[in-house]
Each structure stands twice: as C-alpha cells, then as structure tokens.
C-alpha cells in the first residue's frame, strides 16, 4: 500500500464531467484519502450487479468543495473531460493512434488469456468430477442386476441416460459444462469475441474490452494554463476551516446537515459533528438550533454551526464555530 | 398596568409575575428593551424553580469592560455540574479507578443566554455574546472557604475547569407555553460527550 502514493504525481487531474468532479484512478483515490484526507464518494456500480450498490466502485466523485480545496493547494487541477476527449481523439493519428490501438489490443489479449485459462481449469475440474461420478455409477449398476431379475440386464449406458433425466443427478456438472468453454464473456461482446465453441478453446483472439478510462493519465495535459475554479456553495469557508484542522468531511445528507465531520478517516472513526454553515448575518431559526442540537446529541455527535466573518480583521480565515449539545435539562 | 392591577385585587401574584414586578425598578436605567428583561426573568424563574439553580444573577453589562451585553444574561450555579468534557470524564474515571474512590464533582457557575423560540439569531449575534462574556461568570462560585486548605495542587480535570475551560454558555430557549429547553453552546470546536 505504501507504494501507491509514490505512483501518484501531483498535481492530479480531476475530470469534470457534466458538473461532477470525478477521479478514475484507484491510486489517486487512496492518495487523496491518505495524504489530503479527502474522501469523496465512490459512485461506480458493479457492471454485473448494478443493484448491489452497497459496494460502489470507481469513479470517485469529489464534492465541489473538495475539488476547489485540492486546486487551491495546487495538488490537483481540473480537466474538462468532454473538451479534452474530443481534442485527444480528433488529433490522434499515425504512430500515436497505432500505439493506442496496440495497447487496447494487448489489454484485450491479456483478458482473453486469463479467461481461457480459467475456462480450461473449470473444464478439467468438471470432467474429473464427471469421471468419478461415472465410475461409481457403473460399479453400482453392474452390481444391481445380480440382485434383481437376472434376465433383465440394464446396460450401464442406458442407466446413465436415465440418471441424466433426474434433476439432481448431474445438475452441477451439466450446468458448469454449459459455460466452461467461453469463460465469462458478456453478451454484448459476443459478435467479436464469441466464436463457435469448437474453436474457442484455443482461441487467442483478444476480447473487446471497455477501458475504465479512455486514455492513460499520462496523456493528460501536464500543466493546464486555464485553471477552472470549481463553483462551490457558501459553506466552503467552513469546509476549509475544518479541513485545515485535520478533520475529514463527508456529505451530510443523512443527518440533515452540510457535512458530517470525522476526527480521522471515516473508516476508523465515528463522526464528531454535524456541521451546518451559515452566512455571518444570515438569520438562524431557533428551532433549527434546537432540532440540530437534539438530533446531534441523539446520535452522540455535536451540532456544529459556523461561518465566515467577511469583515473580520483578525488573522486567519475569519471563520467562527459554535458547537451545540443538549444540556440534559 | 391595568391588567396586573386587576389580577392583584382578585388573586395573589404568581411567582413569575412577582419576579417581573421586582425587576421593574431595574428596567428604568437599563440599556435593553423591557421584553428582553422579561425573557431573562422567565428563564431565571425556570432555572430557580424547575432546575434548582442557585446564586442566580441577571447581568446587563460585561464584567470585563462594563460595556452593555447584547442582552441581559443570567449566571448561576446548577445543582450538579452542567457539563463535563469527554477527556475530563476519561481522566476522572481513570483517577477514580486508581484511587479506588469516587471523586466529588463540584458544580461550576454557568452563563445562560435567554432566547425565545420565535427569534432569529445570527452567527454574528452569538459571536458578539461570546466576545463580551468572561470564561467563568463573576459571582458566588459555591465553594466554601473552609474547603480551601485541602484543595489539591492540581485536581483531576483541572485543565477543563474554571478559567481553563473553553468559553461556553447554556442557550435557553423559551416557548409560548413557558417550556424552556437548554443547550450547551461552546465557542469553538469541542468534541462531543460520550453520552
């Protein structure tokens, strides 16, 4: 794990796709979390099981606050993904293009080889199991006639055929052997990659793969001249204030606040505060304070309100915070 | 004037009305409007009779520079400690375990900021309140003089008590039916208690 941070070179490109700030590289995700205590939210579904969204994967979506903070620290920069994509592919010619296609083909080939190896392994396993089953069957059926009417000799083969009709007899082996030839190939890829099963076992035709990123991070602009400044909500000052004090922030929807504030990595700690930002002279309804304070205390957290005094002439960011807890009376 | 005059003819005054009447003389020279005084009086009444607070005082001016407070505030002594910092709690438990005896927790004098449920506050408002109050309210701290000699050099939890504590107040919110809720408000980031 320690090496992954070294693989990441700052500034990190953050893809801007339809107003969302996305990160596609797992090394970058762990780097951001460890070095900058930026968590983001994983939002990629698992292709085979989109409903199992308890386990989300890449990409990671960053809050606009997180993106802006990273940009201000010069740890990252924003790449307008659509513009860059069009620019990249319309100018991709000659050797560059061949190299790109070659890399796709190499990845597909590797995937296919892995799939083939897996398939072969499964076939062998299924065949050996079938052989064991058949051996025990034939020994059983050869003993059977001696006990029964000796005039009726049931041939071993017909007994096999009879047994195959039974739902539980060879179900496992049969269902596995149905799939063992082509490995895990999705139907969408069938035109290019699934061929008649007789030839498939020794096929090295590359799979048509869909890369999770459409270009390698190294091909991104290294030093973007035009810096997109992420548009952030007014709670950014509070976010930056808490972040500077080594807190981790997560979206606050579940507790009806702006941020859940964790004293360390959210995988290790419960959150300490429900933070809601107000502008310096924005009216705050007392009922909101009572409600937030009561909810926070109910879940063993403090209700933190804070905001930036823009006229503050003291040094620092001018952010002041207050924490509310139910007094128990 | 008329309604209260009528009431006084027919029935004895309620305790709340009495305390409002008593405070009337103080209103004349006060920098704050009457309704804020009445609000403070209502909260004080609740603290005194529902929550058994003692040594209650209404403050109109800052003890630090004698400037008027943003509104009249109350200070008083709760029957037991109103707030124990989670780290202090841990230190107390540890010390109690080591010594094998309970450590008595003396209540500390607290600030109370009266507010009404229909009000709107701002961060600016809260900040100005915190700017004008001292960490520990002036007045009777409840400690008896004869106890002073056997006070330890640095009692357990000392760094979270008295002048060492983070500035805090109790935000008292009054509803129309005279229900009052109390929330502890810390100036700055203070981690939550392990309730």
TrEMBL record, chain A:
Residues 12-81 form the TSEN34 N-terminal domain. Residues 189-201 have a biased composition (Polar residues). Pfam families: tRNA_int_endo, TSEN34_N. It comes from the Eukaryota. Its EC number is 4.6.1.16. GO terms for molecular function: nucleic acid binding; tRNA-intron lyase activity. Residues 235-307 form the tRNA intron endonuclease catalytic domain. GO terms for biological process: tRNA-type intron splice site recognition and cleavage. SUPFAM superfamilies: tRNA-intron endonuclease catalytic domain-like. The active site is at residues 262, 270, 301. Transmembrane segments: none annotated. Residues 112-228 are annotated as: Disordered. Keywords: Endonuclease, Hydrolase, Lyase, Nuclease, tRNA processing. Residues 134-143, 210-219 have a biased composition (Low complexity). GO terms for cellular component: tRNA-intron endonuclease complex. InterPro entries: tRNA_endonuc-like_dom_sf, tRNA_intron_Endo_cat-like_sf, tRNA_intron_Endonuc_cat-like, TSEN34, TSEN34_N. Constitutes one of the two catalytic subunit of the tRNA-splicing endonuclease complex, a complex responsible for identification and cleavage of the splice sites in pre-tRNA. It cleaves pre-tRNA at the 5'- and 3'-splice sites to release the intron. The products are an intron and two tRNA half-molecules bearing 2',3'-cyclic phosphate and 5'-OH termini. There are no conserved sequences at the splice sites, but the intron is invariably located at the same site in the gene, placing the splice sites an invariant distance from the constant structural features of the tRNA body. Belongs to the tRNA-intron endonuclease family. This is tRNA-splicing endonuclease subunit Sen34. It comes from Amylocarpus encephaloides.
UniProtKB/TrEMBL annotation, chain B:
Residues 143-155 have a biased composition (Acidic residues). One of its GO terms (molecular function) is nucleic acid binding. Keywords: tRNA processing. Residues 136-164 are annotated as: Disordered. The keyword Nucleotidyltransferase does not apply. Residues 43-134, 164-195 form the tRNA-splicing endonuclease subunit Sen15 domain. GO terms for cellular component: tRNA-intron endonuclease complex. InterPro entries: Sen15_fungi, tRNA-endonuc_su_Sen15, tRNA_endonuc-like_dom_sf, tRNA_intron_Endo_cat-like_sf. GO terms for biological process: tRNA-type intron splice site recognition and cleavage. Belongs to the SEN15 family. This is Sen15 protein-domain-containing protein. It comes from Amylocarpus encephaloides.
